[in-house]
Amino acid sequence: MQLLPGGVTSGGSGLSSAKTLSIRSLGDSRVNSMGTAIVVDGAPLSNNANLQTLSPAISGGGAVVGGGSSPNSGLDVRSISTDNIESVEVIRGIPSVEHGDLTSGAVLIKSKAGREPLTIRFKTDPQIYQASVGKGMNLGERRGNLNVSGDYAYSVTDVTESYAYYQRATARAMYSNLFGNLSSNSALDFSLGKDTREMNPDDQRTQLATGSKDVALRFNTNGTWNINKGWLSDVKYAVSGSYRDKHSFSQQLLGNAFSAYSMSNTDGAVLPTSTLAGTISTARR
Fold first, then answer.
1. Chain centroid to CA 54: how far?
2. What is the CA radius of gyration of the chain?
3. Which of 73, 131, 201, 263 is the most buried (most CB within 10 A)?
């Protein structure tokens, strides 16, 4: 994305913070990423169900709780393994209505399918340690191909802060076949991402600790039916369904509170306005 015209070059390549795609880099990157559609194998991905945010009454704004993307930004693309990608097409501006609701452009991702040799990769740089494996198998004449892959990544942005790290594990299986004039690809994806900031043993003043877990399961099938009759040449289809479970937490020791705050999780509770110093305030979504 940094190679696109107008893209902002970033020095860091770590995964410890949420990564979003922004085609137009000027202005508020969160708004730009929210308007950038990410389409994987013909089906769009969405961040619309994300509720991982602290109340503005506590944080002063829509801050994310314990990692990952905030509800007012685009999808956190750390859950997408680049080893499964065959090609990426970037559409700048407003493309066809085929790609759904968007304002900045679209990123079309096509996954690997079909037969390919066994591939094992190990990658390391100052911030990322990653291992992946993948293989595409032919199941026999007219039985199609099965492509399976998986990867694991571990990232620490600052080695002096090893208590703050990110972990990701993904697995994918894709079946592809040709049924007469119909070419079809069906895939099942699993991803697990964990942002962790353990309590720094030297930080006895705030005792800050945060964390989040994002588990996703997605099924997608797409293909092309070649008709070639009169004005109708072909019909493309894509059907997708996904389930995502996100949990986040943040806790901090407030040793000297200058304003009233509440730890109540019950709507309508009547609480005193004074606050005792040294109380641990925990926010969960």
1. 19
2. 23
3. 73
- Tokens standing for residue 280: 């641990």
How much is the pTM? Answer: 0.77
Query: What letter does residue 53 receive in the DSSP assignment?
Result: B
Backbone angles phi, psi at 99, to 5 degrees: -95, 10
Nearest to 116 by CA among 146, 77, 160, 155: 146
Q: How many helices (H) and strands (E) does the chain have?
A: 2, 12
Q: How far is the CA of 92 from the CAs of 25, 61, 80, 86, 254, in angstroms?
A: 12, 30, 21, 20, 46
Q: 22: which 2 tokens?
A: 């922004």
- Token pair 């198998």: residue: 137
Could you tell me whether strands 43-45 and 116-124 are parallel, antiparallel, or unpaired per DSSP bridges? unpaired
